[in-house]
Amino acid sequence: MNYLEEPYIKLLFLILPAIFFVLKFFLIPILENLKFKRSLIGKSVTLNIFVKDSNKTHVVKGKIKEIIDDNYIILKRKNHPNFRFNYLLSKFKFAIYDNCDTDFYIDLLILEDDYFDMNSGFKKV
Q: Dihedral of CA 105/106/109/112: which sign?
């Protein structure tokens, strides 16, 4: 009796590579992204906000308090209310100098002032 001709064995040889493919290319990057987001909590951030078509710039400093719905980061500031902004992984820049007072720098360019408030940050849309 040849076990390789059994239909269950053939099905198993089809399913195992498919499971490996899904884990390697879809699930592992998602889990690494979640791990990075969780490691951000408690880190200090300097947020530079530039408003397009004007000379307005805002600098916000604080520590990351929480991440809401994987879209918004809440910054806890010392003497101001919490500040909310969109989570954009590609915008994070590591502070590489020894004399930096922050862990990350983020540069944000906003197109309109409609959804932005200097005291509380960006409103949910």
A: negative
- List of residues 6+ apart from 122 with CB closer than 8 A: 72, 84, 85, 86, 115, 116
For residue 63, what are its two tokens?
A: 């520590």
- Enter the pTM of the model: 0.63
pLDDT in tens, 38-66: 888 888 888 888 877 777 788 888 898 98
Q: Is the pLDDT higher at 91 or at 34?
A: 34
- Which tokens go with 44? 């200090």
Q: How far is CA 6 from CA 2, 62, 106, in A?
A: 7, 62, 58
6 backbone dihedrals φ, ψ, rounded to 5°: -65, 140
